[in-house]
Amino acid sequence: MTAPEGGTRLARSLELFRALVSVHPLPFWVATGSAAVYSAGTIASSVAVSFVVDEVILPAFEAGGRPRLAVGCALTVGIGLVRAVAVVGRRSLAGLAQWRTAETLARRVIGRILAQPPAWRRERMSGDLVARAGADSDTAVIVMGPMPFGTSVLLLLVLTGAWLVVVDRPLGAAAAAVIPLLLAVNVGYQRRIDRHYARAQDELGRLSEAVLESFDGVAVVKAFGAEERETARLATIASRLRDARIRAVRGRATFEGILDAAPAIINVGIILLGAVRVRDGALTVGELSSFIYLFTLLLFPLRIIGYVFSELPHSLGGWTRVAEVVDDPIRPDPAGSIADPPPGFAVVVDGVTVTHPGADRPALRDASVAIRRGTTVAVVGPTGSGKTTLLATIAGLITADSGRIAVAGGRAALVQQEPFLFQQSLRGNVTLDDPGIDDARVRRALWTAVADDFVDALPAGTATEVGERGAGLSGGQRQRIALARALAHDNDVVLLDDTTSALDPQTESTVVERLRASGRTLVVVASRPSTIALADEVVWLVDGEVRATGSHADLLERDPGYRAIVEAHGAS
């Protein structure tokens, strides 16, 4: 799918029409066929009106007249039934096509979001992505509801114009001339209103971003008394959304007022001219009644065309925002470039350089580390030295500018300092609903993470619901559950990004000792001297560069910078 860009508004509208219909064409075209039958029935109903007036009603008032009542009833009822069936088919299938298409668009957006690597998602606001998968997908298909009838209206207009001219050439020509004028009003409306709908859709996305961010940061907002600031920020965005929608609604109200008034005024003129034609004998009363009836019936189809035109800008805005996500090429997954390390090694980082988007210098510069299987390595460095970037690159979450990454098993489990827990049971957060993880494996993972004691003390044990983002647990408990999740999935390499920062030293020491005993390779971002001392080897990072590697004791002796930072953390 591609966002209709450039060209005329007609070209963009036709491209949107083609793209929407191609998603689920069968129900849409059946609905359009039903609408075409309805349009033909509309023409036929005007013929029936003429027949009933001239052959049933007027003869009933004439002496010796023979009303053809049975034929008139059969004609009227038969055409009415055909039109009723066509209306049901048109509306039901048009709705089916519309909401199936909305579902498909939403699935495509969600699928593309999931297919993109984590770095792509970090560059975008979560609220905006949610809006594109939800509100924008629904908005993009709004125009599909009236489209089947709107397209069949073109057939109706052609047939009607021809029929009106056949009934009475002067009167038909006058009536047919009105149709292009009303269509011109529709086109003029679209030209004026589409920018307001596009702006409103963009503001809706920004509002979704801001609301989600504010909800996620509610604790910070409350703690610092920033409620008024957040209220003002959201109110500003909401006011821009309101203003854009008000301008769009004003334009739509003006348009619909013209669409209501113009045909009614024209109808009065047709009646006056038609009365003259009847007086002169050029028309029968039945033909004039048929003429007025048919022209009156045209008002609704013209309103449908107007509705299509009025929704086009709205749908174009939603479609464009959906297409921006779906058409964005899938970036290479950095995890796909991770190789197998040489025998005896669990992790090899060879000459890796990483520069974050928008940064003026690399977060990692020509970093090289080789970690043997079953060892515990502590990554130590000052703030901003690249510790988290190193672990994220090993985990396959960040694409390196250059260099090579090799990990045993092809993937390492990363446990972050601020772990994410889902709003489900504690067991579900550990297993992620993997049917291959049984209770024994869950218990073993909880024990290794020193989480079994507090889990057993919970009222429902592992069935306890942890709340949104694990709100029912403390920071240390959330960290241990996240660690148990990584262990339950049997990754050979476990990366701990300051994961035990919320634990007391004794619990942290127990966690590290049990992890070492499990035989896994551990890479731990650490700052406490007690934790660092448990490592087999230390990687000393400064300004994105690996300054030194070695044992804790060795680095204390030969590197003043390392000694200074360890002593500073020890003093704290």
Please, could you describe this protein's structure?
With 572 residues, the chain is an alpha/beta fold. The chain folds into two domains: 9-326, ABC transporter type 1, transmembrane domain (ABC transporter transmembrane region fold, Up-down Bundle); 335-571, 3-Layer(aba) Sandwich (Rossmann fold), CATH 3.40.50.300. It contains 20 helices and nine strands. The protein has helices at 9-23, 25-61, 69-115, 118-122, 126-133, 135-140, 147-167, 169-216, 218-223, 227-279, 285-326, 387-394, 426-431, 439-448, 452-457, 475-488, 505-517, 529-532, 552-558, 560-571; strands spanning 345-354, 364-372, 376-380, 402-407, 413-415, 493-497, 521-525, 537-542, 545-550. The strands form two sheets. A six-stranded mixed sheet has the order 5-6-7-3-8-9, with helices on both faces. Helix 8 (169-216) runs antiparallel to helix 10 (227-279) and helix 14 crosses helix 16. The longest helix is centred in the middle third of the chain and has 53 residues, at 227-279. It starts with 8 loop residues before the first helix and ends with a helix. The model has no long low-confidence stretch (mean pLDDT 80).
